[in-house]
Design a protein that fits this description.
Residues 1-19 form the signal peptide. The chain has eight helices and eleven strands. It is an alpha+beta fold. The protein has one domain (38-284): Beta-lactamase. Strand 7 and strand 8 (215-218) form a beta hairpin. The longest helix has 23 residues, at 2-24.
Length: 285
């Protein structure tokens, strides 16, 4: 009888451990819609609004803190702009850029009004230099206007199950655009199916051959390369959104995607991203 009681107790312990392990991970969509945290946090993670790291292939969440909290996402909204352009435009198509006038402080790739440039180079300007003018040019090339393109962005978000997301423009300006760490993982995983996207966001710089003049672009993501093999994805910043970074890193045939939203500084954002990616790769092994 005593042996039976001991055996029963052991079974209870094992089942509890299995249940706990299952609660710590799961897909981004399965996490509590109200936020919450899964797994023990990576040690020394700086303060942030929301964070996540997930398996790039399966979407399994390896760590998350407030993954479904809807917040401003700055230029990481351009990831959806890139996805729609990749799905609807040939890379070698040449389009005419409309005039774009920002407030003087916005990031651009320096497009001239009426300049003819290849879609591939517009995507490089969008993803590497975070060009607002590139975003507007792609929106017009796909849909004829920014409002029509924004409707496509929101439709695609619904198709992907991005329930925390709404877009107000193809650029990432604060008005009308919000998303969550979990949803940014979703759109990034969809983008990673495109080889052109993976190569573009992993490149520290690129020289463009199309357009009115020869441009060399530098990637705004300063974490690329290094011992951790960071290979993406997209930075963002506005005064209201704080510092944002969707990151990725690959080791062997496995990759992870991270998101940090609302960091107080670029240094905090980058440190948090490195810790999340390192933690995620370790969990994969």
């Amino acid at each position: 009888m005593r042996r039976l009681r001991l055996l029963a107790a052991a079974v209870v312990v094992v089942l509890a451990a299995v249940a706990l392990d299952g609660a710590l991970t799961g897909s981004a969509a399965d996490l509590d819609r109200g936020g919450g945290r899964s797994a023990a946090p990576p040690p020394g993670l700086p303060p942030h609004t929301a964070a996540i790291v997930a398996d790039a292939e399966t979407g399994e969440v390896l760590y998350a803190d407030q993954p479904h909290r809807g917040v401003l996402i700055a230029s990481t909204a351009k990831l959806m702009t890139a996805l729609i352009a990749l799905e609807r435009l040939p890379l070698d198509a040449v389009v005419t850029a409309p005039g774009y006038v920002g407030d003087g402080s916005e990031s651009t790739m320096g497009l001239g009004n009426g300049e003819r440039i290849a879609v591939a180079d517009l995507l490089r300007g969008l993803l590497m230099a975070s060009g607002n003018d590139a975003a507007v040019a792609l929106a017009h090339a796909v849909a004829g206007s920014q409002p029509a393109f924004v409707a496509l962005m929101n439709e695609r978000a619904r198709e992907l199950g991005m329930h925390d997301t709404s877009y107000g423009n193809p650029i990432g300006l604060d008005h009308g655009t919000r998303s969550s760490a979990a949803d940014l993982v979703t759109v990034t995983r969809a983008l990673r199916r495109h080889g052109f996207f993976r190569a573009t966001v992993a490149a520290p710089r690129a020289t463009l051959e199309s357009g009115a003049w020869r441009r060399t672009l530098h990637n705004t993501n300063r974490l690329l390369g290094g011992s951790l093999a960071v290979d993406g994805v997209k930075t963002g910043h506005t005064e209201a959104a704080g510092y944002v970074l969707v990151g990725s890193a690959t080791r062997g045939r496995r990759a992870v995607v991270s998101v940090v939203l609302g960091a107080r500084s670029e240094a905090d954002r980058d440190e948090a991203t490195i810790r999340l990616l390192r933690y995620g790769l370790k969990r994969l092994r």
